[in-house]
């Protein structure tokens, strides 16, 4: 296992057949042996049944031979099943290995590769295309071996029965073996033509639809139709040719296999009449002839799978056969500990098309010095930063970090010493905590350095420093607690609630809608307004209400169903109309009553509603609409209004429901009460005993400040932040704002405490306050400790950098201390003046 | 059945109102309905009390406002002296450029009385317009002609004695 594996793109398709599957393949071979025997045995039994049992009229022999026959058939079926099982195991194993190896290879490819490669191509390759070659791998050994052995066994048996007859009847197969591949080749060529033409064809259709305005505007229906017809005609011809060759393959194959019995009848019949062949042998011959067809067909099909698999595999591997620019892991040593000095000499970076993005750049930094790179966009700042961080492979010159040439280091050496914050940092699906520890875990994981992960205190300190603390706190405050895990916290929060009402209730009343038994709550859902309480039994939880008989009966008795369904229909119509064609990004769906995943189902319900009335909908569809109405929260879902009359009515029904359920099922609900924790509501709503009404930054700031005050008094702040760190940031971090993503990315690198820090416009999405905070932090905590190369686009932050380099058209045109450069009245002075 | 019929159930929604408002702004009026609907849906209402700032000088601009009701005043502070620039009232659209790129607010906009406005953040705008790439040119066109109109009007109304203004003219030549 220790030997280094060849990269996947250099491996042949056949290497997957036995690699790691040897034991299974051997077992398969053994089973195939038994299988072939069990397929031939019935032939001999047939002969004996006719020749011995029937002609001698011996019932006991008949029973014995039939017994053998039955046993052979059962054995052969069992073997066939086992063979399929093993084939599946082998091919799925190969698929899993191919996927893992290819994915690992692809993510190690240089960034330049991905500039020309669509994510869709990678997805399609890994998800779909590898399935074809892996199918081949599963049957690569078993199908040819079992079928060829079967064919040979049958042929051998036939030869043993009657050599002359056997030779004549088998003569058809060699001829087929010559003719069939020829035909298949023609079919393949036609197929290739068909694929190409189909692509043009789709393009043509897409163009017509894109230009539909123009077609209508000019009344050019005839012209478009004629262009289209020409392609249709060409495609028709190619398809006919392709189909004809395919049928020719099939028919030729059929012809040859049917010629066999004909020859057997002709010659075998003659020999039997002449008494040179027993009747039983003739029967065995005929049946062997027929049975030859199955393995033969399997072989022909296998040939096709092999061809497809080979072509797909080779094309895929050729596509991804790109050398990684640097080695990922060092061989035979741990990652180097680099000194944090930086020296760049005669550095040039030339693109594939020959453009010089960097031209003879020179600079040097002592360990702990801070450098700001400034200049217009396109001047090469980011390119230089990426070269230093080893993400761009430079064409000429040198970059030394602690006297080590960067292009010669492994990726792991660089990662262990350098931290990068990219221009638009990427945040992965997962919790805040996972994203925070991403860089630290990567280092710890690969180097096994035993350097422990940062402690909670370290993490909280970094959250404070980077200014994302308040955001994480807010996520924590928006969490639902569960009764089994948070009993102590819950009691504390009730105390905070009391304090909040005393201290801030009045001041924040504009921003909070307090839970009030006698008011309709615009920021709570229809269901919450009706029940006005927390379900103590799961079947009464909001999401289960449409499946709850008691609640449904209540809605029915109170005549609420038609009204609610009406709301549901309107919500569904408007939401599907507005969001129907948008991607599942949180920005679009956070103000929607339905999630992106649910939208297609609602679209189908609306389709139904075109043809029938709501009462005629299938029960599931009806309940779907009702569910939507129950979620309706007019303060958030603004596409539909909720009239005052209806609010008043729902308020009356709340009282009725309250009375009914207290009488019938008193243990089902806890009604909202100022003295109790509401588990169906977030921590924040529990402190408020209400819900926030507005999201303006001013209001949020005010709310956050007052809550922080209270939490500090109760020593709860860190507990809530810890809960907030489990917040899931959504796919690509889409539940975070641009600023939050950037702060998280900075925090992630700060936690790693790299010796060399590269920040590529890392604070561009931050507000002034956060930006200043990060700047101060760099000056107080990181100066002299870590070397910093920062690409800066706001010149008011560079005053305290040790050095400033002004770049223009790929060159450093000026470098020195800030004051020095300003005094020189050169390029920096110009730039700052312009601002 | 209660007395609540269809009509009582159809109060005008905020979304519909937003749609009407956006169609009257120069920035959005040229857009087809399919994208306009998304913008109308994504807009939120901001309510500002007397003395609250809709935005402040020096802050990063984060989006555009369209005043629905109330009264506001635009100010600029230089060396701790504050100048009144102008007022903005209902129907006026402020900050279209900030949807297109990052800059910093050069002015402070204060609410003089309770003010309600539509707010659209840059993030929402840019994520939406990415879905309708063909429509960006229309917005650029609208912005360019708005800048030109602005300067034309300024030139027409410019007081004769404003000599200091001349070297600063030409924003439409940018």
What would your notes on this structure say?
The complex is a heterodimer of chains A (835) and B (174). By secondary structure, chain A is an alpha/beta fold. Among the domains of chain A are: 8-162 and 277-319, Up-down Bundle (ABC transporter transmembrane region fold); 342-452 and 730-834, P-loop containing nucleotide triphosphate hydrolases (Rossmann fold); 537-649, no CATH class. Chain A is built from 33 helices and 14 strands. The relative contact order of chain B is 0.17. Mean pLDDT of chain B is 87; it is low at 1-9. In chain B, the strands form two sheets. Chain B has a four-stranded antiparallel β-sheet with strand order 1-8-3-6. Chain B has one domain: Jelly Rolls, CATH 2.60.120.10. In chain B, a hairpin with a 2-residue loop joins strand 4 and strand 5 (81-88). Chain B is built from five helices and eight strands. At the A-B interface, helix 22 and helix 26 of A face helix 1, helix 2, strand 1 and helix 4 of B.
Short description:
Chain A is an alpha/beta fold and 835 residues long.
Task: Please indicate the percent range of residues of chain A in DSSP E strands (runs of 2 or more).
Answer: 5-15%
Measured as a percent range, the helix fraction of chain B is: 25-40%
CATH architecture of the domain at 342-452 and 730-834 in chain A: 3-Layer(aba) Sandwich
Largest interface between protein chains, with number of residues from each side: A-B, 38 and 36 residues
| Major β-sheet strand ordering of chain B | 1-8-3-6
Shape of chain B: globular
Order of helices and strands of chain B: HHEEEEEEHEEHH
Which SSEs are present, and which pair or pack?
The complex is a heterodimer of chains A (835) and B (174).
Chain A (H helix, E strand, L loop, with lengths): L14 H4 L3 H33 L4 H49 L3 H5 L3 H11 L1 H9 L2 H20 L1 H8 L1 H39 L1 H7 L2 H53 L5 H41 L22 E9 L5 E10 L4 E5 L6 H8 L7 E6 L2 E2 L5 H7 E4 L10 H5 L1 H10 L8 H11 L2 H9 L9 H17 L8 E3 L11 H6 L1 E3 L13 H9 L3 H19 L6 H4 L9 H13 L7 H13 L12 H21 L4 E3 L11 H6 L1 E3 L4 H17 L3 H8 L13 H15 L3 E5 L7 H15 L4 E5 L11 E6 L2 E6 L1 H7 L2 H8 L1
Parallel strand pairs in A: 3-12, 3-13, 6-11, 11-12
Antiparallel strand pairs in A: 1-2, 1-4, 4-5, 7-10, 8-9, 13-14
Chain B lengths: L13 H10 L9 H10 L1 E5 L4 E3 L7 E7 L2 E7 L2 E8 L4 E2 L1 H5 L7 E4 L3 E7 H10 L4 H22 L17
Helix pairs in contact in B: 1-2, 2-4
